[in-house]
Amino acid sequence: EAAQLHPAIQATVAPGSTIYTDEHRGYNGLEGYSRTVVNHSVREYVNGMAHTNGIESFWALFKRGYHGVYHWMSRKHLQKYMDESAFRLNRRGQCMNVVFADVVERATDGKQLPYKKLTE
Questions:
Q1: What is the mean pLDDT of residues 85-112?
Q2: Are the C-beta atoms of 20 and 38 separated by less than 8 Å?
Q3: For 29-38, what is each residue's pLDDT tens digit?
Q4: Among 37, 70, 73, 95, which residue is least crowded by beta carbons within 10 Å?
Q5: Count of alpha carbons within 13 Å of 27, Cβ hemisphere only?
């Protein structure tokens, strides 16, 4: 647990950052960071600025995409599925057809976007 979490955090989070977590023991002993904990086991869901609502919303959206749309995701492209879910979550409430059309237009600059390049 800690052997996997600590190196991942240290590789991706700036030292001195505040980390908001649940009470999972894998975070115990993490040095170089400030940590605020939400203790779900005592029915605590918010502790000051700390809450897990955002990440829980992300995973709910991601799982709906998996079960309802994709049904299977390759390990190779998993990060792309995650990025799409984050994109959708960050733009919730906007018309997705307009948002995607705008993104594709800006990404392609009016040039063709071959499927092979899209799926690299």
A1: 74
A2: yes
A3: 999 999 988 8
A4: 95
A5: 15
